[in-house]
Amino acid sequence: MVVVGAGMVGAACALYAARAGLDVVLVDRGPVAGGTTGAGEGNLLVSDKEPGPELRLALLSLRLWAELAEPLGAAVEYEPKGGLVVASTPEALTALTDLAAGQRAAGVAAVAVGPDQLRDHEPYLAPGLAGAVRYPQDAQVMPTLAAAHLVRVSGARLETGRTVTGVLRGADGAVRGVRTDRGDLLAPAVVNAAGTWGGEVAAMAGAALPVLPRRGFVLVTEPLPPRVRHKVYAADYVADVASDSAALQTSPVVEGTAAGPVLIGASRERVGFHRSFSLPVVRELAAGATRLFPFLTDVRVMRTYLGFRPYLPDHLPAIGPDPRVPGLFHACGHEGAGIGLATGTGRLLAQVLTGENPELDLTPFRPDRFAESEEAAQ
Amino acid sequence: MPERSPVLAVIGAGPAGLAATLAAAGRGVRVVLVDSAAEPGGQFYRQPARGLGARRPKALHHQWRTWRRLRTGLDARLAAGQVTYLSEHHVWCVERESPGFTVHALLGPEQRESVALRADGVLLATGGYERVLPFPGWTLPGVVTAGGAQALLKGGLVLPGRTVVVAGTGPLLLPVATGLAAAGAKVAALVESADPRAFAHRARSLVGAPAKLVEGAGHAARLGWHGVPLRVRHTVLEAHGTERLESVTISALDSEGRPVPGSERRVLCDTLAVSHGLLPHTDLADGLGCGLDGVTVRVDEEQRTDVPGVWAAGEATGIGGAALSLAEGHIAGRSAAARLRGTTPDPGAWASAARTRTRLRAFFAALDGAYAPAARWVERVTDGTVVCRCEEVTAGAVRAAVGSLGAGDLRTVKLLTRAGMGWCQGRMCEPGVAGVAGCAPAPARRLLARPVPLGVLAEPADPPPPQ
Prior knowledge:
The structure holds 2 protein chains of 2 kinds.
Chain A: E1 2-4, H1 8-19, E2 25-27, E3 43-44, H2 53-72, E4 83-87, H3 90-105, E5 111-113, H4 118-121, E6 131-135, E7 139-140, H5 143-154, E8 157-159, E9 164-169, E10 175-180, E11 183-186, E12 190-192, H6 198-204, E13 212-221, E14 231-234, H7 236-241, E15 249-256, E16 262-268, H8 279-292, E17 300-311, E18 318-321, E19 328-332, H9 338-353, H10 371-377
Parallel strand pairs in A: 1-2, 1-12, 2-8, 4-14, 12-19
Antiparallel strand pairs in A: 3-7, 4-6, 5-6, 9-10, 10-11, 13-16, 13-17, 14-15, 15-16, 18-19
Helix pairs in contact in A: 1-5, 1-9, 2-9
Chain B: E1 7-11, H1 15-24, E2 30-34, H2 64-79, E3 83-86, E4 89-96, E5 101-107, E6 114-119, E7 121-124, E8 128-130, E9 143-145, H3 146-156, E10 163-169, H4 173-182, E11 186-192, H5 196-201, H6 203-207, H7 210-225, E12 230-232, E13 234-240, E14 247-252, E15 265-268, E16 271-276, E17 278-280, H8 283-288, E18 292-293, E19 296-297, E20 310-312, H9 321-340, H10 351-370, E21 386-388, E22 393-394, H11 395-403, H12 410-417, H13 430-437, E23 452-453, H14 454-458
Parallel strand pairs in B: 1-2, 1-7, 2-3, 7-20, 9-16, 10-11, 10-16, 11-12
Antiparallel strand pairs in B: 4-5, 5-6, 8-17, 13-14, 14-15, 18-19, 21-22
Helix pairs in contact in B: 1-2, 1-9, 3-4, 4-7, 9-10, 11-12
């Protein structure tokens, strides 16, 4: 089988498919983790997901990440640090408490933290916050290391710097492999793990998949002694993640890293593939982060980088076989959660590929679920 | 004349920025000259700090007359109110607005506060920085950059050490060696990896710039005067020392760039000043969205970048020394003054500068080919050698990222190893890491040109500069 895209999701697909006994070639026009994976923070989160199919996928994925961390934890900088979602106002706290109750019913560990206990968990938090919920299952990896090591242990054949230019199909319409700038790769199954560029790969096979980019900036500070223990973010973040608005949204996500720098995300904008710097966006991120952690005011930002999250109109990924093109499978459109959801995605896809029953219902992730609405629109 | 003269922000007060300022000021635009140093001059005309009371600063400089002309010209335009000069302003971002630009700069040595100034046009004269390639022992205290040694001497009237070896490649090594010797250091050797025969092959274009040859010959003569042994087609194999540098091993190179067996010798020294040429500063241009050709800012005949309203001149558009920077700066300043007033400039007005530019670009293109770091330098970088000093990443770690983790480009090497992620953001180590990894030396995108406090970024806007 051929996996197109050597980002986090492609790496996980390669790993679980190879473990299921398939012969895997992983092909990417760039290097490993050259797209959105290399521009992300490495969030493995349940806390930002409302009860539903994505949360189920996240819970499966985090279990699998914990398994993988047994041998690979240090290499991929796996840190089961937990998340702390803070509310600045009583209204925000009420909404957060309601969300946490629903999540708890779905199997998430969520612990209420009163305003007086906040500093026991995060000693440098700003005073005057209304309260928080702690999510012990939230974790972090270094995404580029994670993708590279998963590819390495998968034993898949890695073809970087090789561009897929077409999807080969037989007379019956079934997939026969891919055409690349350096010759054809023949296989009865092709997995589209091209992330933000997943729509282009789908189109090569004659299938429509409306993946669109949502730009995000991340700020990286100078290295610091450990001061931020959890992944800390404001409760508004959950609303932003689920939002359909094209306008800029920034809600700060602040976290320490094993290497010392503090990472500050995450803006969300729908501006196409615009790579230009935006100072107003960076200013909003900085303002949000210093509101949560006043000590950051004197800390310097060393660099800022941007990436493009791949999102689908209903904010759920496309996972599974494409009924329109036999032999074509999709594993893309994970928006800002691709690192976290990669392991579950890879496991489910491997189960489908080997004819097993997938352990989660794939109906909400059907790749052709937008076809009807597109036809209606026309 | 419009009611308000257009404002041109010139970033960098080295040769290119000063020439641009003098060319544009008094031609209907107001120039704001922004520079990070305390005194104008840049690296080339770096001035001793005033408090040091240098009696004969010209002893450290060539082209003193050119400098006097620039300085006098700047003073006259400052007095006439045509130029505002902002020293110790560290520009961290130039923002495109519609219309115009906002230049953001951190103030003074502390760099804790920021100001913003509005401009109708921006002229980037951001200069270059030194390329230093790694070798075993290069992180020992006592190993400095050649440009750093020169800056210490010009700006602080301080010698970096008593016994110095100057090594690497490029036209900077000669003036650094003669400057150090003239100031009283013992220069134990000048070690240049380039092959003199490479110059002979390029004789035709080199003849095109007699002034440069005379300058070079002058340095070479002074080298002899000070008794400095010149070792061409040689390289430093390793720097030795326990607490700090004590000696270096140098070796002759064969025509393939391999050390000649048996030619190694130890040279005792307390300082090694090393340089492998210069690289252009392109962060601000890149942040503005200006197109680059490889590692240099792309400009047209008028020194315009491909972003309307942005010009670039000097080393940022290609390494070529002070005389070329002056010519480019002059052309850019004249073009900007005309264009910002909505008129089309007459290239005839800068014909002489354009001829100088053509001649010197050809000369430096030839020189660049001649001054190449010793071939196969990568083979001599042992796995244990630290290649990224900020993050203490070894050559072995970089090679592992390429070998077993599938890194095919510099960005992935960086993400996998942290090489280039530290305080210098890869400015120091990028060429070395790229060489060891076997990748093309693509410049990293640095959207912030220098570290900025979060408290500065958290403000809705920066205040204007103090009057």
